[in-house]
Amino acid sequence: MDLVSLYMNQVDETDWSRERLKRHPQVRGCATVAEALTLGGSKLAVDGAVPVGEHGKYPDFRSHAAGVQRPTGSGVQAKCSYSRFR
Questions:
Q1: Is the dihedral of CA 27, 29, 34, 39 positive or negative?
Q2: Pick from 51, 52, 42, 46: which is nearest to 4 by CA?
């Protein structure tokens, strides 16, 4: 399996992803999930995706009845790596 692209959301000074991209120049750092999936083209260019959800800063989704709710759908954009299988 080859790691070919990486999308990162909410990168701060403690994040290791930028350093890892420098150490592995064959992996493409992408600005969007779409770019990571298509490698900048117009068609799907990877065989698999590995989403990694980590703690982050997201809007407060409190309601009186349910207490704290976790964000879902497009409200959560985690680090995702995309791979080609050999």
A1: negative
A2: 46
Looking at residue 62, what is its pLDDT? 59
pTM: 0.62
The structural domain count of the chain equals 1
- What is the SS3 assignment for 24-76? CCCCEEECCHHHHHHCCCCCCCCCEEEEECCCCCCCCCEECCCEECCCCHHHC
With the CA atoms of 5, 10, 15 and 16 taken in that order, what torsion angle do they form, in degrees rounded to the nearest 10? 0
Summarised one tens digit per residue, pLDDT across range 1-26 is 888 999 888 777 877 888 889 999 99
Provide mean pLDDT across the span 29-40: 91
Q: By residue range, what is the domain housing residue 31?
A: 2-84
Q: How far apart are CA 36 and CA 28, in angstroms?
A: 8
